[in-house]
Structure formats: structure tokens, C-alpha cells
Write a structure and sequence with these properties.
Elements lengths: L1 E3 L2 E6 L2 E6 L4 E4 L6 E4 L4 E2 L1 H10 L2 E5 L6 E4 L7 H12 L1 H16 L9 H22 L19 H24 L15 H8 L6 H10 L5 H16 L1 H14 L32
Parallel strand pairs: 1-5, 2-6, 5-7
Antiparallel strand pairs: 2-3, 3-4, 7-8
Length: 289
């Protein structure tokens, strides 16, 4: 995956080419890029979008450093076996519990309590999260009551809650980009369910307390005139400095692997494509011209 900012993406000699503000051209091999993250100030030509669709490169329009996800192009890197794999894990109660237990372990650094249901683990997780909020508030001199916000009356919330909401919104942006780039469905969650971004919330929670939540409380402790903007810029910087996007996708694979099943093989009676795709030297899911 690559990030492009303040440049124009076009096609030259069958490959992507990025022309920056100074007219410098940088070639990007079409078969080696799973996703192009388009940051503000980037323009994409019709030819580049067509090439991305042909070779299976996902185009994702994001904010600086991935703090927002505005839109995504054709998910060419996704494969039906990945989606079926995710759905099977989510629909089977035993497999779902294995994945949820792994998420708990990744998030808190210790195995989940034995013989607990998903609902019980969710309750334990909520209690621990509330205590972590209180601890961070004390460390940063923040007056903390509870997690409380109303999207319809954003300005009515206190500064700590506004900072937290802004920070988690940034994390959801980069996490959704990772989920799409990995070829999975944002809506098929394991702990969170019934929302368009349920799986995004599941994965974002695994990184929340090591990235954006400490930033939110630090800024809330000495609030600037525009705390939401300060949080957004701080999240952008931490996403870039920690290369967070590169960490999220392996973690997705890690927690799903806890289900101890493999992506499903094609059914024996499946009808193969009339025009099969030629062999590719690119990553899994890429197509070739």
C-alpha cells in the first residue's frame, strides 16, 4: 500500500505515475500495489481509475494520515473466499467465541477468562475500559465523569468526551481503510454487530488504548481553542510515525485465525469462469491485464 498526497495520479506505459507539485514523476508498478491511499490534494485521472479496476488495486480516499475515510473505489483486492471465511466465523457461535477471546487477549495482553460467553466477555471488557478511562484522566489532570456524547448535539458534550469522540473517529477511518484493503467486510463484526462498520469497531478497539485514547486525554488536559482539530492532527502524526496501517492488517489475520478454520475451498460443482484469469506475479486478489 502507498499513500499519495498533493499529486496527480495518471497512467504512463501501463503503470501508475504520480506527478507531484514540482512536475516530478514517480512510477508505481501496477501489479505490486494492493491499495493506493489518496490523501487530500490528490487528483486521479480516468485512465488511472480504469487501470486500478483492471489490476485489482483498491483506491481509498482518506484524510491526512488516514484520520478519515471518505470513499473507496472498487475493492479489487477482495476475494469471495475471504468474505465467506469471515461470515462463517461470525455465524458459528463456537467459532465466533474463539475470535472474540483472541480479540480480548490482543487488547488486554492476557487470556480471556475461561467459560465466558461473548456477552459476558463484553461486560468484562466494558468494566476494564471504564477503569482505563479513569486512570488516564487522573494521569492527565482531567475531570472525568463518564463516556457520554450525543452526535446530534456535539458541542453540548464536555471537552474530554469531545476529544475522545474525535480521536476514535480518526481511528475508525484508518481501520476501515485496512479492513477494505485486506479484503474483508466492514459490516460483519464479532463483538459489535448490526452496524455498517461493526468489524471496524472490533478491530479499532484492539489499538485504541495504545494510540488515540492517550492522545485524547493529553489534549483534554490542556485544551486548546479547537480541541477536535488538535486531536485530529495529533492522531495523523501518530498514525504516520507508528506506521499503524501496516500493523492493523496482520492483526486482523491473527484474530480471525483463532477460529482455527481455513478460507473455504470452491465447491466441486462450481462452474469455473469462461475466461479464467491468467497467472499473476502480484499479491493475492490482484488481476492482470
Amino acid at each position: 500500500m502507498i499513500f499519495v498526497q498533493y499529486g496527480q495520479i495518471d497512467v504512463l506505459d501501463g503503470a501508475f505515475v504520480v506527478v507531484d507539485q514540482n512536475g516530478v514523476r514517480t512510477h508505481i508498478p501496477a501489479g505490486s500495489v494492493a491499495a493506493i491511499m489518496l490523501e487530500p490534494g490528490t487528483r486521479v485521472s480516468h485512465a488511472a481509475v480504469r487501470l486500478a479496476a483492471l489490476v485489482g488495486t483498491l483506491l481509498i480516499w482518506i484524510g491526512e494520515g488516514g484520520v478519515r475515510l471518505y470513499a473507496s473505489g472498487q475493492p479489487g483486492g477482495a476475494r469471495s473466499d475471504r468474505l465467506l471465511y469471515q461470515a462463517r466465523l461470525a455465524l458459528d457461535d463456537a467459532l465466533r467465541l474463539k475470535v472474540v477471546r483472541k480479540m480480548y487477549e490482543v487488547r488486554f495482553g492476557e487470556p480471556a477468562p475461561a467459560r465466558r460467553s461473548v456477552e459476558q466477555l463484553r461486560g468484562i471488557e466494558g468494566a476494564r475500559v471504564r477503569e482505563m478511562y479513569k486512570l488516564l484522566a487522573r494521569q492527565n489532570g482531567v475531570t472525568w465523569r463518564a463516556r457520554d456524547y450525543d452526535q446530534k448535539e456535539w458541542d453540548a458534550g464536555d471537552v474530554p468526551n469531545r476529544c475522545l469522540s474525535s480521536a476514535t473517529s480518526c481511528l475508525y477511518g484508518i481501520t476501515e481503510a485496512a479492513v477494505l484493503a485486506a479484503g474483508y467486510a466492514p459490516a460483519v463484526g464479532f463483538i459489535h454487530t448490526g452496524k455498517p462498520l461493526s468489524f471496524v469497531y472490533d478491530i479499532a478497539d484492539l489499538f485504541k488504548f495504545e494510540t488515540v485514547v492517550p492522545v485524547a486525554f493529553r489534549i483534554a488536559g490542556s485544551p486548546p481553542t479547537d480541541p477536535e482539530r488538535a486531536v485530529r492532527l495529533a492522531c495523523r502524526d501518530i498514525f504516520r510515525s507508528t506506521n499503524l496501517l501496516a500493523k492493523i492488517i496482520p492483526t486482523i489475520e491473527q484474530v480471525l485465525a483463532a477460529g482455527e478454520i481455513s478460507p473455504p475451498a470452491p465447491f466441486a460443482e462450481n462452474i469455473l469462469p469462461a475466461i479464467p484469469s491468467p497467472d499473476s506475479i502480484g499479491e493475492v486478489g490482484h488481476r492482470v491485464l
